[in-house]
UniProtKB/TrEMBL annotation:
SUPFAM superfamilies, alphabetized: NAD(P)-binding Rossmann-fold domains
Record-stated family: Belongs to the short-chain dehydrogenases/reductases (SDR) family.
Keyword terms: Oxidoreductase
Lineage of the organism: Bacteria, Bacillati, Actinomycetota, Actinomycetes, Micromonosporales
Protein name (record): 3-(Cis-5,6-dihydroxycyclohexa-1, 3-dien-1-yl)propanoate dehydrogenase
Transmembrane stretches, start-end: none
InterPro entries for the chain: NAD(P)-bd_dom_sf, Sc_DH/Rdtase_CS, SDR_fam
Enzyme Commission number(s) of this protein: 1.3.1.87
C-alpha cells in the first residue's frame, strides 16, 4: 500500500497508542512524517525506527512555541506540510461531577481542556499557513464521547464535545483551502493517562479490563487494537480519496454501538 506516497504529515502524540499506529501505517503507505511527542522514551522509540522519512520534535502540545517548532521541522525537512493530525489527549477515568471536589473540578477542567482542546487549537494555528499553501487537511482524534455519555466523566465528555465544535468551526473558517475532519475511536487498551490534578497521571486505561469488556459487550464482540483505527486517518489524509469531505467526524467506535439482542 502506497496510498500516502510523499504526503507530509505532522502527528502530535505519535509515540504510543493510536498515534503510534498512525505513524506505522503512514510510513508503510509512503508518507513522510514529523512527530511532536513529549515523552523522551517514546521519542527514542520513534527514532529507533531509523527512517529518513521520520523526524521527531520533543515538546508539549499546550505550548504554541512547541507546535510552531514541529511545523517548522516538517517544512524544513520535507519542504511543505500537507496534513496535521492532532492526537494528544487525556482521560478522566469516568469521574462523575459529584465525585469531584470543587477544587478538583476547577483544576481538572483546566488540565483536560488545556490538552484536549487548547492543544488542538494551538496546533491548528501553528499549521494553518503551511496547510493553506498545500491545500491540506487537519484530522483530530475525538471519541465516541463526542456524541454519547459513558465514554468518560463530565470533564472528558465536555472536552470531546468541544472538539466536535472545533471541527465544524475550523472547517468553515479554513475553507476552501484546508479540509478539517476528525476520527472518533472507542475504547482500547493503551497507556492513555489522566491529569495529575486528579491524581490520575500514573493510571493507564489499559489497567482497566477494556479488552474483556469489548469482547463481551461491543456490537462486534471483539477487542480493538489501535492499528484497527489507523485506516480512517489514512483515508482522510489522502490527496485524492477524501477531497469532498470536510466538517465531518467519523464515529468508528464499535464499542459505542449497543450490543444486539439475543
Amino acid at each position: 500500500m502506497r496510498g500516502l506516497e510523499d504526503r507530509v504529515v505532522l502527528v502530535t502524540g505519535g509515540g504510543s497508542g493510536v498515534g503510534r499506529a498512525i505513524v506505522d501505517r503512514f510510513l508503510d503507505e509512503g508518507a513522510r512524517l514529523a512527530v511532536l511527542e513529549r515523552d523522551a522514551d517514546k521519542v527514542a522509540s520513534l527514532e529507533s525506527i531509523g527512517s529518513k522519512e521520520l523526524v521527531t520534535v520533543t515538546g508539549d502540545v499546550t505550548s504554541y512555541a512547541d507546535n510552531e517548532r514541529a511545523v517548522a521541522a516538517a517544512v524544513e525537512t520535507f519542504g511543505r506540510l500537507d496534513v496535521l493530525i492532532g492526537n494528544v489527549g487525556m482521560w478522566d477515568f469516568s469521574r462523575n461531577l459529584v465525585d469531584l471536589s470543587p477544587g478538583e473540578l476547577e483544576a481538572g477542567f483546566r488540565d483536560l481542556f488545556a490538552v484536549n482542546v487548547l492543544g488542538y487549537l494551538l496546533g491548528a494555528r501553528a499549521a494553518a499557513a503551511a496547510l493553506k499553501r498545500s491545500r491540506g487537511a487537519i484530522i483530530l482524534t475525538l471519541s465516541n464521547a463526542s456524541f454519547y455519555p459513558r465514554g468518560g466523566g463530565v470533564l472528558y465528555t465536555a472536552t470531546k464535545h468541544a472538539g466536535l465544535g472545533l471541527v465544524r468551526q475550523l472547517a468553515y473558517e479554513l475553507a476552501p483551502e484546508v479540509r478539517v475532519n476528525a476520527v472518533a475511536p472507542g475504547a482500547m487498551a493503551t497507556n492513555l493517562t489522566g491529569p495529575k490534578s486528579l491524581g490520575l497521571d500514573r493510571r493507564q486505561i489499559k489497567d482497566i479490563p477494556i479488552q474483556e469488556y469489548l469482547e463481551k459487550h461491543s456490537a462486534l464482540e471483539r477487542a480493538i487494537e489501535p492499528a484497527d483505527y489507523a485506516g480512517t486517518y489514512a483515508l482522510l489524509a489522502s490527496s485524492h480519496d477524501a477531497l469532498t469531505v470536510t466538517g465531518t467526524v467519523f464515529d468508528i467506535s464499535a464499542a459505542g454501538t449497543p450490543h444486539r439482542a439475543r
